[in-house]
Design a protein that fits this description.
It is built from nine helices and 18 strands. By secondary structure, the chain is α+β, with helices and mostly antiparallel strands. The strands form five sheets. It has a six-stranded mixed β-sheet with strand order 1-2-6-3-7-17, with helices on both faces.
Length: 376
Amino acid sequence: MPLNGLDLSQQLIRFRSINPPGEEKECSEFIARLLTKHGFDVASYAFAKDRPTLVARIPGSAGGKPLCFTGHIDVVPLGSNEWQFPPFGGVVQDGRLYGRGASDMKAGVAAFIAAVCNLIEDGRRFHRGVTLVITAGEETGCEGAFHVGRENVLGPAELLIVAEPTSNAPIFAHKGSLRVVVTTRGRTAHSSMPLEGENAISKAAEWIRRLEGHDFGARHPLLGSATTCVTTIRGGENINSVPDFAEFTIDIRTLPEQKHEALVAELNHLFGSEAEIRVVTSFPGFATEPDDPSAAALLSLLRERTGAAAQPAGAPYFTDASALVPAFEGVAAVVIGPGEAAQCHKTDEYCLVDRIEEAQAIYRDLMLRMCCGHAE
């Protein structure tokens, strides 16, 4: 009996793969068994105990670079608000599939797994291989994706499809993220005699003012400019002393062409030599040209489905593509999946059932065109 993307989505939602702390193992093992049953060569790479990322392959008879699909199976915590629908029930009501991870992004994972497994059951011959990368740890920094990249186990790919929630519209670029901690030092004194001290909080406030007025210069046609956000701040020890320590954190959403090392140097110049800057995480963005030949089959089938040319767009967030595009040797990538971006991390998260069915059909048609020679 053919796999149904909706049914498989429900099964995946019922695994409590919450991150943190990271509970992906049971869901990953379920997927590994399903893919092995359908003839995939499945390898597991854990970046920590019980935190596996799967790399599953069906080879192509003609060699060449495979078509790759990726998605993560970890989900964010439930939050403190009460859910109307059981978060791990996979309930369908009024055309919506409810549950934590429904949009972000177990429906996307289920859709591409169902699509490829059904082609295998139909006896289709693959002249181009298919690779699936099903990751752990995405929600806390793409840990699983970066791990398989460091392990150097991926090789090349012709096209990478990231099944994150886009309502099945193609995203051809997304920003990266550079997160830093900025520390400033001062000199303590009694708060009644502030001139005897050197106020670290005042320094931090001045640097934040400079940052808010700073333009990093670069522009991208789909992504606009880089953005900065000061996200935390702390300093001082007591109310009646001049603080001799302060620190704040910055999340810079960067453009694909911006080098993060150069941005850190720019921050050093902006704040001055007293600033101590420590990089917490550094995730590059990606950009695929809309006329890239590797994406032609996808754009063609989207045009045929809708009767109009798809409009490539960009996104301000980052995905596992930050790790996997360079790991796949600079592969062309497109983010396209059935979930609703506005549903990510919300109470009573849902995905539209019609979107899941549509995504499964899109992925099936793409594999037929790129890997099996034609579409039906």
